[in-house]
Amino acid sequence: MASKVLVVGSGVIGLRTALELIRKKIHVCVVSPRHPLHPSTCSMGAGGLWMPFHCDDERTDRWSFETLSELTETSARPGSLVEIVPKVSFQRSDNFPIPSWATDPKSKDIAFQTLTLDDLYTKSKSEKFRLPPKVDIEGAGYTHAWTFQAPIVDSPRMLTQMLEEVTGSKYTDHINVETNKYYSTIGEMVEEATRLGCDGLVNCTGLGAKQICGDESMVGARGVLLHFDRGSVVWREQQGSVSQGEGIKESAVTVQEEPYGTETLPCYIIPRGSIIAVGGTYLEGDEECHIRISERERVTENAIRMGIDVDKSKPISTWVGFRPYRPTCRLEVDDTISPTSGVKVVHSYGYGGSGWTVFVGAARDAALLLTQSS
How far is CA 232 from CA 20, 271, 316, in A? Predict the structure, then answer.
């Protein structure tokens, strides 16, 4: 059982793992090369939507439901960093696969439904939530949708809160989340753990694990977003649909079928905190760090499709990031590290586009592995 753990990485997985250890009264040291609020980090730039996405592991649903339970409870608190919104996925027919998590008994509280377009827009009117113009959706050939009540995390504020909690804990012996130091090998991490007096180490370096661990199965799945100011964004007038007025709720919408989107070029909109995020891309192996002109044009078109009046509302920022995808997540004890090193090593990375969906469950498992007797 580890008594003091070095956590490498300060994204959502690293910070939450540190908190799980702290809650078990385990002393921690936390280091990362970049601050969790650095605009390049996936945890910071992510839409914060709870929904398993490109996280291919048999443990994903369990981690997701543990996270869902906490996010749902958090959303009920005044001034919460989590809000619950309708999540809608448009489909071109009634013959579409239902996600495994949607059929689990533990999903009953999210009210997953499959609906015809008419029923969906009737629901939108009665419950007062905004959707893209119905005439456009019908004209594009979409006839059905699935929907559920989805938590969305205000990720920058949640990261700030977690960092403050870790920093202020009496069990935090050392923290530096702007070291500008990148480890080349896991051996270097073990040496750092030893130097800091740690007998445990958890590697939460995300995509960085590709080099550190020589893990060639890791790949960056590039995402692109335009951010609109949520308080001032102007919505297109919609005849026969909810678009304007007091008490109108936002919804999160995704389309992964043509003509609006595909699996690699999804069309989506997510209300997150003070912004409206419009995307996007899922391009494995694409390493371009800046948004391309053609991508900006396409995502702007997606904003129009989702109902934003882009003549009256301009993006306030863009974001490009790289989801840390792996064929299966790596959450395990590293048996290749010799016991004579005196450091127990756990790897926790490769959660794809689901960091904010699995972070609670995954962090609990990592902390359990570190505190179990060998």
Answer: 38, 13, 11
- Closest to 64 (Cα-Cα) out of 361, 329, 367: 361
The secondary structure element, H or E, covering residue 163 is: helix 155-168
Span between the terminal Cα atoms of the chain, in Å:
7
Pairing between β-strand 219-229 and β-strand 172-176 as defined by DSSP bridges: unpaired
pTM (2 d.p.): 0.95
Q: What is the pLDDT of residues 206-217, one digit of tens each?
A: 999 999 999 999
CA-based torsion, 48, 231, 75, 88: positive or negative: negative
Q: If we measure between CA atoms, which residue out of 162, 222, 214 comes closest to residue 16?
A: 162
Residues 6+ apart with CB under 8 A from 6: 28, 29, 30, 31, 189, 192, 193, 196, 198, 200, 201, 202
* Dihedral of alpha carbons 231, 87, 268, 302, sign: negative
- Whether 241 contacts 225, CB under 8 Å: no
The residues facing 90 across adjacent strands are 145
pLDDT in tens, 40-93: 899 998 899 999 999 889 999 999 999 999 999 999 999 999 999 999 999 999
Determine the Cα angle at 285 with ends 284 and 287, to 5°: 120
Contacts of 11 (CB under 8 A, 6+ apart): 32, 36, 41, 42, 43, 44, 159, 204, 206, 355
Question: Cα 61–64–68 angle (5° rounding)?
Answer: 135
